[in-house]
Amino acid sequence: DPSSPPLLALLTIPCPWLLTASLSHAMEFLLDPLEPNSLGLRAIFFSHQGHKGSHLEASSDQWKRLHLSLQELLVWLQLKDDELSRQAPIGGDFPAVQKQNDVHRAFKRELKTKEPVIMSTLETVRIFLTEQPLEGLEKLYQEPRELPPEERAQNVTRLLRKQAEEVNTEWEKLNLHSADWQRKIDEALERLQELQEATDELDLKLRQAEVIKGSWQPVGDLLIDSLQDHLEKVKALRGEIAPLKENVSHVNDLARQLTTLGIQLSPYNLSTLEDLNTRWKLLQVGTLRALRFLDQGQGDRHRTSVQGPWERAISPNKVPYYINHETQTTCWDHPKMTELYQSLADLNNVRFSAYRTAMKLRRLQKALCLDLLSLSAACDALDQHNLKQNDQPMDILQIINCLTTIYDRLEQEHSNLVNVPLCVDMCLNWLLNVYDTGRTGRIRVLSFKTGIISLCKAHLEDKYRYLFKQVASSTGFCDQRRLGLLLHDSIQIPRQLGEVASFGGSNIEPSVRSCFQFANNKPEIEAALFLDWMRLEPQSMVWLPVLHRVAAAETAKHQAKCNICKECPIIGFRYRSLKHFNYDICQSCFFSGRVAKGHKMHYPMVEYCTPTTSGEDVRDFAKVLKNKFRTKRYFAKHPRMGYLPVQTVLEGDNMETPASSPQLSHDDTHSRKS
Predict the structure, then answer these.
(1) Are 492 and 434 in contact (CB under 8 A)?
(2) What residues are paired with 457 via a beta bridge?
């Protein structure tokens, strides 16, 4: 019926997919059985509706496939980004970064392979969204049902478009991440290759210089006639190695640049850098030392660290000895060492052996300039010469080299106090007297360390910790045998001064037994237990803390008057009676055993090596008050010892010490204060 608008619209719409736009208006006409013309049209209409249903079903399958593909791509992109992140950080040496570069190149090939898949999927989604009418899309979106058809169609579009955008964004981010990582790898490879080439070049030049230096004859073995020729060789080598300073600086600068870039150098590279810097320093120090010894002024000074009729000579096993051309005699001791030992005899009038020994050692310590040597400087020198195997022997050349390093540094800090050649000869002389009386030309590394550390400038307990560490195992524990080695080397120091009997004798077994009994007979002890035992000042080691108190008391000034010699103020140690009020004795009177009328040597006294505080004055007053009511018999029955006695079996009596109570703290750098 030409007059029916729905029918006209149905027949005139060119695109069958838009049929539904007029379907609601034409439905009544098409389904009216009374309309004679509706039968054919109904056939045409329902045929079209069947074709439309199959097309929507195909679109639903394609939408689901695209949705799943986009989800899978997002998961893959996230996994690849995580994988790329795990490739960081940049390695610390060239081979490691080269391997990272190979791994990342394979990663980039994988991205290249995946790129067509991603681009194709994104293009398919774009086409699907462009060609699919909203009428079809609204049927693909199933929930929620209450939404209007147009909004359901828009949601399908929005979901696919969002997923496609996420895939595109993550793909671009992954490629940027990969490019940035490749840039870092390339930069690191360039810098590390430059560092490797620089270290290889420096290593070669150092080796060449070391070969030349290693071919030199030891300075001490040179004949006087050959000194000038050797001096020219040393100067020539110093001229050749001077440019190496720039190479060393360049290598260190490259290492710093890598650190600035956030690249942590590998242990191998760090070890290489440390080795190169150490070798460069040793080469500088070695050639400078040789130059000093051989130069006209310094060479004469070394060969004549002795004056007058004396000449320094070398025995076949490289041990120095001294010839007196006037008396036609030879001596192992340096003339200055002989003078020093003679001066120590002045201290034999000190009544108490611990103080007598400590005062002798203090004089020796100063003569060797070891009172200027800090523990850290000593450790640096020991590490520089790689003295780590404590059981290994050191020959004379090794000892001289290490001592020269120590005294070269001290000379830089105290040029007016340190004469390097003289100090080296004197300290070598003392070490051999203590640990190599037979002059074999060798002492153990542990012996060398024990001698140097015992007389250096450091906190007393820092010395204890360092020495214990030398005999402890890698786990930090020490058994009886290894403790015996330490105590044996320590007791040799007073033994060389003829004072060993006062410290329990040279048999160290009672001391070892005392320490482990203190530790409840454990098979091994740790540092804390060893320190607790040492704080008790065991008889075999009491000379060391007393040495520290002697050093601290040297400059102490006490506002008190000696009741015997009337010295005021008292300089040095002050001894205050805990039996009588206002009774003080200076160290000179106390050490010589002088007493005033009415005061006995067995009366309790307290020792001070620094001025007293008000608190200490009050405490001592209370003790004096208590002791006023004690009888002579009480003090005879309760003698006070200033050390932990060790019961010896074969030799040595208990040493004679003052009946005083040292008041100790650890504030002083070099001593424990009273």
Answers:
(1) yes
(2) 374
Give the residue among 502, 545, 560, 511 at the shortest CA–CA distance from 662: 545
Q: How do 605-608 and 660-662 pair as beta strands?
A: parallel
Residues 6+ apart with CB under 8 A from 226: none
Q: How far apart are CA 167 and CA 156, in angstroms?
A: 17
pLDDT digits (tens, 9 = 90+) for 261-319: 888 888 999 999 999 999 999 888 888 877 776 654 344 444 446 777 888 888 888 89
Nearest Cα to Cα of residue 459 among 658, 664, 666: 666
Name the nearest CA neighbour of 265 among 278, 247, 251: 251
- Nearest residue to 424 (alpha-carbon basis) of 340, 297, 330, 320: 320
pLDDT digits (tens, 9 = 90+) for 596-651: 776 666 677 788 877 766 565 555 545 544 554 455 554 454 444 444 444 433 33
Question: Encoding tokens for residue 28?
Answer: 């009544």
Q: What is the dihedral of CA 389, 394, 397, 400, to 10 degrees?
A: 80
Q: How many residues does the chain have?
A: 674
Cα separation of 471 and 488, whole Å? 12
70 near 164, Cβ under 8 Å?
Answer: yes
| pTM, entire model | 0.54
Q: Omega before 144 cis (within 30°)? A: yes
Instruction: Report yes or no: 477 and 528 within 8 Å, Cβ to Cβ.
Output: no
Identity of the amino acid at 27: M
Angle, alpha carbons 196-200-206 (nearest 5°):
145
In three-state secondary structure terms, 281 is helix
Which residue in this structure is represented by tokens 């009177």? 589
Backbone angles phi, psi at 630, to 5 degrees: -100, 145
Place of tokens 């070798």: 279
Tokens of 141: 């979106």
Collapsing DSSP to helix, strand or coil, 550 comes out as: helix
Q: What is the largest CA-CA distance in the chain?
A: 159
Residue type, 330: T
Helix, coil or strand: residue 417: coil
